[in-house]
Amino acid sequence: MPCIRCGSSHLIVLLVALSLLCLPGCRPKPPEAGTGEAGLPPEPEPPAPEETSTAEVPEVTWQLTSMAFANGEPIPAKYTGDGADLSPPLSWGEPPEGTVELALICDDPDAPAGTWTHWVLYGLSPEVRELPEGLPATETVAEPALKQGLNSWPSIGYRGPKPPPGKPHRYQFTLYALSEKLDLAPGATKEQVLEAMEAKVLAQTMLEGTYSR
């Protein structure tokens, strides 16, 4: 009759022998580099973002400024209806290539009755780089050569800020670079100038001043 205890000892010896006989090649092969779990290829890494270059996109800087006030700052009283009501001095850099005429409009988008026009000017040579203080309120000006239109009063030339008492109003001087000359006589309204400028604007730049009473 076989010994149960001896049988257990024989089983243990057999298991130890089998473990010693297991060669390295019997062990599970680790996944190769470059493969994921279960030997599947790994998910591809996202491509590195392409470097963008702005070297081929020239940056055009065209800015309208004034010696009288900075952009977003109050307009001095001498350029308003509470003072001498002079047109402010303005200057700008070289307009975009292809500009054949400059036009300028100044209006107040905060007026109680809706946007109020203070100045309409056109027929200005692209060679001009500034407007002096106090242009005459006439249909044409000789130096620099230009034409002036009607403001909202209506009258010819510049009329400065004179808003009702309360919060400051914004006065936006917008200079336009045009690809064609405007076929307009002196005395045109802002609406007529805007219509004539349609599809001819190469660039525009704005200077904004404020004023309150």
Architecture overview:
Mean pLDDT is 83; it is low at 1-8, 21-26, 33-38 and 49-59. A hairpin with a 7-residue loop joins strand 3 (101-108) and strand 4 (116-124). This protein has a domain at 77-211: Alpha-Beta Complex (Phosphatidylethanolamine-binding Protein). It is built from 2 helices and 9 strands, in the order H-E-E-E-E-E-E-E-E-H-E. By secondary structure, the chain is of the alpha+beta class. The strands form 2 sheets. It has a 6-stranded antiparallel β-sheet, covered by helices on one side.
SSE blueprint:
Layout: H1 4-21, E1 64-65, E2 90-92, E3 101-108, E4 116-124, E5 130-131, E6 140-141, E7 146-148, E8 169-178, H2 190-197, E9 201-211
Antiparallel strand pairs: 1-2, 2-5, 3-4, 3-8, 4-7, 6-7, 8-9
Q: Between the first and last Cα atoms, what is the distance in angstroms?
A: 123 Å
Biggest beta sheet summary: 6 strands, antiparallel
Rg from Cα? 40 Å
Strand arrangement within the widest β-sheet reads 6-7-4-3-8-9
Please write the CATH class name of the domain at 77-211.
Alpha Beta
Instruction: Write down the oligomeric state.
Output: single chain
Range of helix content: 10-25%
Summed up, the helix count is 2
CATH topology of the domain at 77-211: Phosphatidylethanolamine-binding Protein
Structural class: alpha+beta
Strand content: 15-25%
Q: Give the tally of β-strands.
A: 9
Which H/E pattern describes the elements? HEEEEEEEEHE
The whole-number mean of residue pLDDT values reads 83
Describe the structure concisely.
With 213 residues, the protein is an alpha+beta fold.
